[in-house]
Amino acid sequence: MKTWVCDSGQKLEIFIPFLGKYRPFLGRCCQTCTPKSWDGFYHKQLSSLGFRDAIRVTEEDTRYRGWLVRRVCGFLAVWDWKVPADTPGDLPARICRSKRVRDVATGRSRGSGGDGESHQRWKEKILKILAEIQAPLSLLMLRLSNWALLKLLNRLFLSVQLHRGQLEMVLRAARTPGVPLVFLSTHKSQLDGLLLSFLLFSQGLGVPRVTVGDQVCSPRLRALLGRLGGIFLPLRMEQMPSNRDEGLLGAVLATYVEEVLRSRQPLLIFLEEPPVALRLSAPAREWLALVAVPDVLLVPVGIAYDVVPGGLHREGAHGARPLGLGACLWAACRALRRNLGCVRVDFAQPFSLQEFAAKNLVRQSCEGKPLEELLLPTILGTCQLDDQKAEIWGPGPATATGLEAEEEMLVTKLGLHSLSDGVACSAVMAVGITSALLLHKHREGVFLSRLMLDFAWLLEEILLRQHDVGFSGQLRALVQHSLVLLGARLTLYRLSPIGDVLVVPEASAEALRELGYHSAAILPVFASEAVGACAIRALLMEMLPFLGATVGPSAIVLSQDELHRKTLELLRLLPPNLLGLQPCQPLDCRSQDIVDKLLLCGLLETEEPESERWVCDLAPRPFCKGRPWAGMDFTDSDSDGEEEVPKRCFKLSEPQGSPGFLLFLCRLLSPVLRTYARAVAFLDRPSWPQP
């Protein structure tokens, strides 16, 4: 640990968050839903493999050497990337021969005259629908576009970081015979599709088929994206997402996705639609319901930007006007005016779709049954999964039309679980930490020296919760880097007498909205503690009016039952995906976990009421004459529950080195609470209690 002396003479520690290349390894799959996949493709040595910059291409990435190669190494590297063979002529024939498509076409054409003419007419319709979904890959256009994209990414970002251990884990999964990969990604901007397609292609994972959400594209842009690997829902499905065609549209789309996966081409599905984060989108449900092969490996993906490409993001906002090719080029030119910092892409541990479905179907079949009915097959060793439920759900003749309630619930659980895994493995960027401090702790302004100390404190809290960050280096350089990227929303005053800098965020609604957007990245890290802090605040606001002004919050004893009740009320108000929590955990267990984390972080401390003693306390009592255990009943009886166990109680405490942590957590969660009218009662109070 070193020190840095500022102009005022104050010594500040230079905090180097990581020594060497060892980082927390995030993204392990769920042990509850996928216990067999927990040990698959993972080794503890993967966490020590370090990072690589995916957009830094040198002559070592090519087969050639020399001074001329160093000037055109990007073009040569892209030309050497392997492109899987695409058979545009064979795919339409396989789809037309599919039993699902033939059954739908035969059923609709039954009773019409001219079998040959009817067959030809339905074949033309199938080919027309297929042309709306995809287009054959153009190898020349693919290589030229990736070379241009490499140049664009180098101008936009300082680096695009990939964890070598996570990449090796995905490469091992890709080598599994007969099992395709499906990448389920978070979605931050409209650049994500091109970025992830570039990364997968450059790392030897093939050219992915990228699903395009409900963004309306112009015909030219749609044709270009189709040539580069984009796939779309048919136009009539996009126009009527809630009333899907139960006939030929759904059959062709389901058969196409099945053929793509059977040919081992990776599929990329975005689970959310920007700017709405942590909510499973309707197109994502559509695409997840179409994954219908015997088994696939699902890979959640997390993307973290220092600054989200704003021009591309605004142009990609949903509106009445279709997104055109010219608008995309103009947005890219505007984004080149400033550097957007760094990007970090994380891959979570792959898990089996078949295992996830089987576990959740068993769990759903057990809900509502009496305990003896559940335990007897297990004791006798006759517990078997129903044959129909053991099969992975798949689109039948009415694939993309209507899922049964059980299958629809399974698709929702899969999407929310994958979205939670993608958020959990995402790194926290320096801009997110600085924005959270300026918005929730120093909205009136802060000196740079104080901001650096708080940055180091919040960084340490993030690392203690086993979350990774997308940066490393000296503390002053990190804070200055984030201030430069946020410069348009800040005002800096250099104070010569003391040699410090005063940082004041703008008070405009647009500036606060942008800071809130950046700071939302750290909410999943502190989600549990933030829910517990809001529950504590609600209890304090209920009790303080009756105690008077002389009693402070730290003098109040909180009951465990009351704290659990308030926490459960808050958890029921908020969808779990908004907090980045896994949906497979029951609310009661999650509530207990929140209380344990509050104790661990120092916001609560256990308090034993003076009027209560532990049940097993055999210490001498003043009223006892002789043996202290005299009069106690040690017989084996069923009356153990007659005497109540003393309740656990807690007192509010202040963690060392982090003043105002409770208030910071409450303010961190307040934007999410305000989006739900039922949660207003937790916020609309006269004032915030100071811990």
Layout: helices, strands, pairs:
Layout (H helix, E strand, L loop, with lengths): L1 E4 L5 E4 L36 E3 L13 H5 L1 H8 L9 H7 L2 H11 L5 H19 L5 H18 L2 E5 H11 L6 E5 L6 H11 L6 E3 L7 H9 L2 E2 L3 H5 L8 H15 L4 E4 L11 H7 L8 E9 L4 H6 L9 H11 L6 E6 L3 E2 H14 L4 H10 L6 H4 L14 H20 L5 H11 L5 E2 H17 L10 H11 L4 E6 L4 E6 L3 H11 L7 H21 L9 E3 H14 L13 H15 L2 E4 L41 E4 L8 H13 L18
Parallel strand pairs: 4-10, 5-8, 5-9, 6-7, 6-8
Antiparallel strand pairs: 1-2, 3-4, 9-10, 9-11, 12-14, 13-14, 15-17, 16-17
Helix pairs in contact: 2-6, 3-11, 4-11, 5-11, 19-20, 19-21, 19-22, 23-24, 23-25, 23-26, 24-25
Polypeptide structure, described:
The strands form 4 sheets. Strands 3, 4, 5, 6, 7, 8, 9, 10 and 11 form a 9-stranded mixed β-sheet that branches. A 3-stranded antiparallel β-sheet has the order 12-14-13. It has 3 domains: 37-104 and 120-311 and 322-357, no CATH class; 430-507, Nucleotidyltransferase, domain 5, CATH 3.30.420; 524-609 and 647-684, Arc Repressor Mutant, subunit A (Orthogonal Bundle), CATH 1.10.10. It is built from 26 helices and 17 strands. The protein has 691 residues and is of the alpha/beta class. The model is unreliable at 1-21, 241-245, 311-319, 374-403, 612-626 and 677-691 (pLDDT under 50). The longest helix has 21 residues, at 527-547.
